Amino acid sequence: MNLTILGATGSIGQSTLDVVGRHPDRYRVFALGALRQHERLAEQCLRFAPRYAVLADEDAARVLRERLATAGCGTEVLTGPRALVEVAAAAEVDAVMAAIVGAAGLEAAIAAGRAGKRILLANKESLVMAGEVFLSACASGGAAVLPIDSEHNAVFQCLPGGRADGPGIRRILLTASGGPFRRASLAEMAKATPEQACAHPNWSMGRKISVDSATMMNKGLELIEAHYLFGLPGSRLEVVVHPQSIVHSLVEYADGSMLAQLGNPDMRTPIAHALAHPERIDSGVAPLELARIGRLDFEEPDMERFPCLGLAHQALDAGGGAPCVLNAANEVAVEAFLARRIAFTGIAELNARVLDALGARPAGADVDSVLALDRDSRRAAAALLEEVAA
């Protein structure tokens, strides 16, 4: 199987390459893509020798090209967003790991769908921003979409055929760890630093998704993603806090049965599942020792402590362009928090203001209109930043 890995230098990309490296007879890396991390991408190219390496940032691509040439590596370096699209849709590619965080990964994911690839979907924003557009592209190209988020991959494993819109499915429960502030007071959260927000108790992730986990916006975006992946309305999608991160999600059936997928909190498990589906392969993840864990706890999420989760419910219920607006506002808000321009609690405040201002906009009917709504929402969020920071 020939793979293109978009977001190769992030945590998902690195985990994907770890699994791939365990099965050199099964997988070949055709292309590696990233935004600007040329140093890590160079190391990956030297090990896996892909035909192409792509960096969206031109200056970073120039540095990478020089380093690979000096090392005698034959990987061709491409640059720019269009190159990401090209390596996602290339005829030689069988599967695409879509793991570029945020709106930057949307066009390449849609291109992979139109080209009929097996899409290993780790970029939830493709569905949150442009659910109908993305799924329509996948349907037209005959693409198979396998979810990589641990929660959605767990649901996929618990559903017959990976769909929940048939008879007998009562609801889906997505589990959430509660992040680093599950027991923090509102006063403590108001003073939280980026370092504290990024210190996830269970998972090793990038800074943006770590902050989203701390606000529980990540879980909110996953609710929207689940709606598109599995065809259920928001009223049949729930979140339950499970601090051990062992049960990754659950599906409840009409007869009272509840199926769950369990495993250690390691993204290599869902990655290996999606790579080899319907087979099972070694992921490198340690076996789960339930006796050592001892207990599994569950509780309802605190909506006062985590208002971003409520905003995601609001956007899902509103439909139209609201999920796209919320996603764009959140990307601006998280970036501002990481730059210490707003407080941790300012993330939810900014998201709420932008959603109130633009949430009634219609959904984009194509990629260009989706990206236009995304830009408008980012501009609105940027204009409101100073008020939130005051």
Number of strands: 11
Radius of gyration over all CA atoms, rounded: 20 Å
Placed side by side, the strands forming the largest sheet appear as: 4-3-2-1-5-6-7
Amount of helix? 40-55%
Beta strand %: 5-15%
Name the helix and strand elements from N-terminus to C-terminus, one letter apiece.
Answer: EHEHEHEHEHEHEHEHHHHEEEHHHHHH
Overall pLDDT level: 94
Shape annotation = globular
Distance between the termini: 53 Å
Summarize the SSE layout with pairings.
Blueprint: E1 2-6, H1 11-21, E2 28-34, H2 38-48, E3 52-55, H3 58-70, E4 76-79, H4 81-89, E5 95-98, H5 106-114, E6 118-121, H6 125-141, E7 144-147, H7 150-158, E8 169-176, H8 186-190, H9 194-197, H10 207-215, H11 217-230, E9 237-241, E10 247-253, E11 258-262, H12 268-276, H13 290-293, H14 307-318, H15 322-338, H16 344-358, H17 367-389
Identify the notable features of this structure and list them briefly:
390 residues, globular, alpha/beta, four-stranded mixed sheet
Give a quick summary of the entry.
By secondary structure, the protein is an alpha/beta fold. It is built from 17 helices and eleven strands.
Describe the structure.
- By secondary structure, this protein is of the alpha/beta class.
- 49% of the residues lie in helices and 15% in strands.
- It is globular and about 55 Å long.
